[in-house]
Amino acid sequence: MGRHSVAEEPVPHPLDPPKRPQGRGEATGSHRIVGKKAPRRRIAKWPIACLVLLVLVAIGVFGWNWADGELNTRAEAQAKACSAGDTPMRIIVTPSIEKPVRAAAERWNNAATVVRDHCVVIQVDALSSASVLDGLVGRTNLDSIGGLPAAWIPESTYWVTELNTAKPALVGSPAQSVATARSADYPLVGLAGKSIDEVQMRAAQTFRQYLQQPAQQADFAAAGIKAT
Question: Which UniProt keywords apply (predicted)?
Answer without folding.
Answer: Membrane, Transmembrane, Transmembrane helix
